[in-house]
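Table S2 (continued). Query chain:
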Amino acid sequence: MNTHDTPEVDELWTRFHKAVNMSSRELVDWLGVQPDVAPTPGPDGPAPLGMAAVGILGKRKVDLTAGDLEAMRKIVDIVADETAGTTASEAANDERKRHRLMSVGHDPLRDPGD
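Corresponding output:
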């Protein structure tokens, strides 16, 4: 039996793919050229959740690992938290918010139908 064939995983899969509205290529490009807007010390290199999103975008649901599911939950939560109560243009005009969203694969200016 496939442990990922559950209603909870189906819902998470759907929510993740709605939250991550950038293609893996777009996300890889973004992670490679992201501006340094975070004044606090942190690891150099691409955002770990962004790289996890790239990996997940290249998988089938049946191939997800427990780590993938955890990353998907975090990404969905970040996108929900960062976009709650704001319009797309407000999120896009807030450089920190836009950077955080883009770093997990969510372009706040992208039309949901794109």
